[in-house]
Design a protein that fits this description.
The structure holds two protein chains of two kinds.
Chain A lengths: L11 H6 L2 H26 L7 H27 L12 H8 L1 H5 L2 H26 L6
Helix pairs in contact in A: 2-3, 2-4, 2-6
Chain B lengths: L8 E7 L5 E6 L9 E8 L6 E2 L10 E4 L9 E9 L4 E3 L3 E4 L10 E10 L2 E9 L13 E9 L6 E6 L3 E4 L7 E10 L11 E4 L11 E6 L6 E6 L9 E8 L5 E3 L10 E4 L9 E10 L2 E4 L3 E4 L10 E8 L7 E7 L13 E9 L6 E6 L3 E4 L7 E10 L12 E4 L6 H27 L1 H8 L13 H6 E2 H8 L64 H7 L5 H15 L47 H10 L5 H8 L5 H8 L2 H12 L3 H10 L16 E2 H7 L27 E2 L1 E5 L3 E4 L16 H13 L8 H9 L7 H4 L5
Antiparallel strand pairs in B: 1-2, 2-5, 3-4, 3-6, 6-7, 6-8, 9-10, 10-13, 11-12, 11-14, 14-15, 16-17, 17-20, 18-19, 18-21, 21-22, 21-23, 24-25, 25-28, 26-27, 26-29, 29-30, 32-33, 34-35
Helix pairs in contact in B: 4-7, 4-9, 4-10, 5-14, 6-7, 6-8, 6-9, 6-13, 7-9, 7-13, 8-9, 8-11, 9-10, 9-11, 10-11
Classes of the chains: A mainly alpha, B alpha+beta.
Chain lengths: 139, 808
């Protein structure tokens, strides 16, 4: 996976230890790293006739969701919901990751596998964040 | 006694190593005296005879030839002589070539061992050659042979070994005990004896283990995980298992940190050793004495193998809000190990329930909440409920929690019960009423619901009808206010008389009696030969009209006439018009079908016109019962014979009168009819049921000056049969019968005594009719009313003129 290089906590304790800002930053980095590859992928599979139409639309839907999610987290970050201090950490490495060729070189199944994993990561981190910020809400 | 010794016998000569040899003999009988044995031999073909050099070494009765005396490749000719005092005896010569008599001793020191080799156990046997008295350097080359068998088996397996003093047996059954022996021989000599037996136990299961398989890996709380494997089939006690793994991206191979925590054949990875979002490559190696084998690799990412424990603390609470149905609230807690609070693991729940006796579960997805409200459960029933959970993404469902029983309290609402009680009471009341009604008015209801089937139109009068005598009723029921019919009833031309020229016509001039009942309604028009036509159908009858208007069937009358007519040729038919009255069918009585009977207007009709009289026979029955119409007049003529007529009249009469009428009628006299007629004094027209009767315009008849046609009341002095049809200026009488073809018997007024009329030649017919009618039924209805109406028009009426000629 092209995001394998990113140091991410791979256990609950590690994730809980990280301060919120850093976690948010990680999330955003991940989301950012997938922006380009997803659009690439969408373009790529449009030429696949054997895929049912659902897949194409689903893929599009997913990339939209990723984008929206990223926007949302950024918004929250800028509004100070996530952290007490206003941060505008925007790292460039994620962008570079995103644009790297590595993602384009992956086979389709690898691509999906990596994306699945990273989206799971993002989801878990977000949940941890949520329960940290607002513990009363079904946590 | 004593004799010379028996002949000795050389039993064998053996050489152990080809350098010495011995011979043994067996003595014969010794003859009772001490015997001396001497062995003589010669070599090859030499003459010289030698004696045995050594009798001792090889034991008694033996001769030992040592090295010096042994020449291989030489044939010895040996004989033994037995000598005693008396004599001697010599054995047969034995030719011995040492080369061929060599038999070594058995081999010694047989040792056995089992050894694994290349995954197979084999038996390794070792032995030593037989010892020699003198360990000479002669390297004797022995040939060996091995034999073995398992204890159970009978047969030996013999294996030629060659010159080796060891051998490996490979085809062995594991776990069996074998017996092994070995023997040897020298060159061309003979085999030695088998060595003593040696036993060896082949150990069982001695092969490398089969490949184990990794069955599953699970994480209960997304923090640790466990993997289980299944040993291969050959895993005996001594198989050792080791689990090895490596992580994605690393070369390093680790061994399972914990084999115990999760039980046998498992490996538990604790928190420290669990990494998420990394793929583990896991294998299990099984080792035993024979070797080892490795399972297929199993790749696992812990994120996706989460299967939580079932939820706990399942509790039920019954909530009873005001003004609403009570409901149950089910609450539970996530499994203890799952860390839901930090958001690391989010669980979704699903519950299922079924009634205790039910077969199928109803599964309800609840989501992430830990409570559920149940509204739609049946009170009083017992339910079983279970819950399970799974991570909200990737992962599998936990086991179902233990069964929880719910007993729904029976909600005994007073309101509901009251409603049910009321419903029950009401329905029972209704049932009572209905049954009572049925009992009381069973027949009528049945008749109402199932109207009687009209029987065939039978000519004749049904006596029964007459008997029942309910003409009054009938008449009233018919709606006519009695005889004579009112104006609207005039047209009761229910039946039309089918008149023929033939003899049939029996018009009985009822003149005598003054029956002017010429009410046969003859519609000239309808002289169609279709005698069977019901008045309903015949256009002339205008049945519809009549039918509607009048209800009273003047059955009697018509029948009467009909009878007369019909007999003859049956052409005349009385037709009961369509239902004149409601059915009071007849069956036997009370009902009166109002059939309008045409008066037996058998008009002697020279004309062809036939008026069909349709049978109103049945009508009689009915009419008898309840018509008030006096059909009696009709019966005038025919009465006497036609029993059936009677009934007709009867029907016309009132109920009470009916009886009388019937009798009267039955009297078979015209009189009876008359009587009948009379019976209905009260009625308007005695017998003219407007609907039923045919009315003949009397005046017409009169005009014709037919004496016979006494219409009107000529005859009836005293009886006026004119039914005073209200509104009609004409007088009409019904023709009761036609006699002699030219006598028109008119029906008298009710009071009229018609005697003559009743003569009716066609007696029998009446009978028939009667009978016929008897059974039939009342279903003939005379559309008296309609007829009546019709009558207003002159055309409907029998035009006496038409038959006038016939009168004479």
């Amino acid at each position: 996976c092209h995001t394998s290089g990113m140091p991410t906590p791979n256990g609950k304790e590690y994730a809980q230890k990280i301060p919120r800002e850093e976690l948010t930053h990680l999330i955003l980095k991940l989301l950012q790293a997938w922006k380009e590859p997803l659009s690439h992928f969408n373009q790529h599979i449009e030429h696949h006739q054997e895929l049912p139409d659902d897949s194409l639309s689903k893929a599009k839907q997913i990339s939209n969701m990723v984008h929206e999610l990223k926007t949302g987290v950024e918004k929250m970050q800028s509004m100070g919901i996530i952290s007490n201090s206003l941060h505008g950490m925007e790292s460039s490495e994620a962008a570079s990751l995103s644009n790297s060729n590595e993602a384009n070189m992956m086979s389709d199944s690898d691509f999906i596998h990596c994306f699945r994993r990273d989206s799971n990561k993002v989801q878990s981190y977000l949940k941890i964040l949520k329960c940290r910020i607002m513990p009363e809400n079904s946590c | 006694g004593q004799s010379y010794p028996g002949k000795p016998k050389i039993i064998r000569c053996r050489s152990l190593e080809k350098e010495t040899f011995s011979c043994w003999w067996k003595p014969g009988s010794d003859g009772g005296l001490p015997t001396n044995y001497t062995l003589f031999y010669s070599k090859d073909s030499e003459e010289k005879i030698y004696q045995c050099p050594d009798y001792q070494t090889s034991g008694p009765n033996s001769c030992y030839f040592d090295k010096n005396h042994t020449n291989p490749w030489t044939t010895y000719n040996i004989t033994v002589m037995a000598t005693n005092e008396i004599g001697s005896n010599s054995s047969d010569p034995q030719y011995v070539d040492v080369t061929y008599i060599v038999q070594p001793d058995t081999p010694v020191n047989l040792s056995l061992e089992t050894k694994p080799s290349a995954g197979v156990m084999y038996l390794w046997a070792k032995w030593s050659p037989p010892p020699l008295a003198d360990a000479s350097s002669n390297s004797h080359v022995y040939h060996y042979e091995l034999r073995l068998k398992t204890e159970e088996k009978e047969e030996w397996e013999t294996i030629p070994v060659g010159v080796q003093t060891q051998y490996k047996v490979i085809r062995l059954q594991a776990g069996m005990k074998y017996i092994v022996q070995v023997r040897c021989k020298l060159d061309l000599g003979e085999w030695s004896e088998w060595s003593s037996e040696r036993y060896i136990q082949i150990p069982s299961g001695q092969s490398p283990p089969e490949k184990p398989t990794i069955t599953k890996c699970r994480s209960p709380e997304k923090e640790t995980f466990t993997c289980w494997w299944k040993p291969g089939s050959n895993g005996g006690h001594r198989t050792n298992y080791t689990l090895l793994y490596s992580k994605e991206g690393e070369e390093q191979v680790y061994e399972c940190p914990d084999y115990r925590t999760a039980g046998p054949n498992s490996c538990y990875f604790d928190k420290k050793h669990t990494s998420f979002w990394t793929i583990y490559n896991i294998t299990v190696k099984a080792t035993n004495e024979m070797g080892s084998s490795i399972s297929d690799p199993h790749y696992v990412d812990v994120t996706y193998i989460v299967q939580p424990d079932p939820p706990v603390n399942v509790t039920l609470e019954l909530k009873k809000p005001i003004n609403r149905k009570p409901y149950l609230v089910l609450t539970w807690s996530p499994p203890p190990l799952a860390d839901v609070r930090s958001g690391w693991l989010t669980l979704e729940y699903e519950l299922r329930l079924k009634p205790e006796e039910g077969e199928e579960w109803e599964t309800i997805f609840v989501g992430q909440q830990t409570q559920y409200k149940m509204f739609s459960l049946n009170p009083g029933k017992k339910y079983i409920v279970q819950i399970h959970c799974k991570p909200d993404h990737h992962g599998s469902w936990s086991e179902w929690s233990s069964e929880k029983y719910i007993q729904i309290p029976t909600d005994f609402r007073v309101k509901d019960m009251i409603v049910w009680i009321i419903v029950g009471v009401l329905s029972s009341l209704i049932c009572l009423i209905m049954s009572w009604t049925m009992v009381l008015k069973g027949y009528r209801m049945i008749a109402f619901i199932l109207p009687p089937v009209p029987g065939p139109k039978i000519k004749g009068i049904d006596t029964h009808l007459l008997e029942t005598g309910k003409s009054e009723e009938l008449l009233s029921a018919l709606g006519c206010h009695g005889f004579p019919p009112t104006s609207d009833c005039e047209e009761l031309l229910i039946e039309y008389l089918e008149v023929e020229d033939s003899e049939d016509q029996q018009l009985m001039p009822s003149h005598q009696s003054g029956h002017l009942s010429k009410n046969a309604k003859m519609t000239p028009k309808e002289t169609d030969s279709d005698s069977g036509r019901g008045s309903c159908d015949s256009p002339s009858l205008l049945s519809e009209k009549c039918r509607e208007s009048c209800t009273l069937p003047s059955t009697l009358q018509t029948q009467d006439v009909r009878d007369a007519q019909e007999n003859k040729e049956g052409k005349r038919r009385w037709e009961t018009q369509c239902i004149v009255s409601e059915q009071k069918t007849l069956p036997s009585n009370s009902e009166s079908t109002k059939s309008s009977t045409w008066p037996a207007a058998q008009l002697p009709n020279n004309q062809p016109p036939m008026f069909a009289y349709h049978s109103t026979v049945d009508a009689h029955k009915i009419t008898l019962n309840n018509t008030n119409t006096n059909v009696a007049p009709f019966l005038l003529g025919n009465e006497e014979k036609h029993q059936s007529q009677y009934p007709i009249t009867e029907t016309v009469h009132d109920h009470m009168e009916k009886q009388r009428e019937m009798e009267n009628l039955h009297s078979k006299t015209a009189q009876t009819t008359v009587q009948v007629m009379q019976n209905r004094p009260n009625d308007k027209s005695p017998f003219l049921n407007p609907t039923l009767m045919d009315y003949v315009e009397v005046h017409k008849v009169r005009q014709d000056a037919q004496p016979a046609v006494l219409l009107k009341h000529k005859e009836n002095s005293g009886k006026t049969e004119k039914y005073t049809v209200p509104g009609t200026s004409k007088e009409y009488t019904k023709v009761s019968t036609v006699m002699d073809h030219n006598i028109l018997v008119l029906m008298p007024d009710s009071r009229i005594q018609h005697t003559s009329v009743s003569q009716e030649p066609a007696k029998e017919t009446s009978q028939d009719l009667q009978q016929g009618q008897a059974e039939k039924n009342v279903s003939y209805y005379l559309t008296a009313p309609s007829e009546c109406k019709r009558e207003t028009s002159g055309s409907d009426y029998m035009d006496p003129s038409s038959f006038m000629p016939s009168f004479k």
